[in-house]
From TrEMBL:
Species the sequence originates in: Paenirhodobacter hankyongi
Occurrences of domain ABC transmembrane type-1 (ranges): 59-262
Gene name in the database record: cysT
Membrane topology according to the record: Multi-pass membrane protein
Subcellular location: Cell membrane
SUPFAM superfamilies associated with the record: MetI-like (SSF161098)
This protein's name: Sulfate transport system permease protein CysT
């Protein structure tokens, strides 16, 4: 029985071999090595390493901040993409190009720049201080950094889908008496949902593992502003490889569960609009 359908294009065996080899070297082997290290520790030692108050606090801060930032980017990123696609105004190309800045800018440079702006003596930090708010060296600073690095993922994922939405469908909805809100909710939103969720997942994944831009603005106080990736680095500097591996396994498990849930919602939304 043929497992793979025969294709008129040659080279399947070679391309499949290259893909599997690269996938194994870049993704599967590192994850496998991490899981093997954790299995060697035993469930008791693994649970002990993860259940510490400092580790739990770092994990909670990392995933909570990443979720909040990704949710903000989901809403704001869709709005930015909509404005860039649907409207023509002076400076649109400049703004569109600036969206890719977090992709090109080194994360350490982004962290230093954000810290300079939002520190108590910075331009925005002084304004926030007058209002009784503290951004840099506090959890809000982590959110600012994660929003900065995650926004392009949502915008660039949703932009092509918005460009392909047929305006005649929206006009037909209005002709049938639907309000703008109803058209947005019943016509536009279901089409954008799969792409928006993909951008949300990408922004979430980037936020969970973000290190360079966060450590400069966070303050890195244990059990207050210390993120999980930084704690992994600290464990490695202390030559506690098992402790670092335990935190990595915890992050891997939580991230996998979250992405599995997001993918399930994506499949449901695609089936709802008939794409699957």
């Amino acid at each position: 029985m043929r497992i793979v359908a025969k294709s008129p294009m040659p080279g399947f065996a070679l391309s499949a071999g290259l893909v599997l080899s690269l996938l194994s070297l870049i993704v599967l082997l590192p994850i496998g090595a991490l899981l093997v290290r954790g299995a060697g520790m035993g469930l008791t030692d693994l649970a002990t390493a993860i259940s510490g108050e400092r580790v739990r606090s770092a994990l909670l801060l990392s995933f909570r901040s990443a979720l909040i930032a990704a949710a903000f980017n989901l809403v704001f990123g869709v709005l930015v993409a909509w404005v860039l696609v649907r409207y023509r105004f002076p400076g649109r190309r400049l703004i569109d190009a600036a969206i890719d800045l977090p992709f090109a800018l080194p994360t350490a440079v982004a962290g230093i720049a954000l810290t300079a702006l939002y520190a108590p003596n910075g331009v925005f930090g002084q304004i926030a201080a007058e209002a009784g708010l503290r951004i840099a060296y506090a959890p809000p600073g982590i959110l600012v950094a994660l929003v900065f690095v995650g926004l392009p993922f949502v915008v660039r994922t949703v932009q092509p889908v918005i460009a392909e939405v047929d305006r005649e469908v929206e006009e037909a909805s209005a002709t049938l008496g639907a309000s703008r809100l109803t058209t947005l909710r019943r016509v536009v939103a279901p089409v954008l949902m799969p792409a928006a969720l993909t951008g949300f997942a990408l922004a979430l994944a980037r936020g969970v593992g973000e290190y360079g831009s966060v450590i400069f603005i966070a303050g890195n106080l244990p059990m207050k502003t210390e993120i999980a990736p930084l704690l992994i680095v600290i464990r490695l500097e202390e030559f506690d490889v098992d402790g670092a591996a335990a935190i990595g396994i915890a992050m891997l498990g939580i991230s996998f569960a979250m992405l599995l849930l997001i993918n399930a919602v994506q499949v449901w939304s695609r089936r709802r609009i008939g794409h699957v």
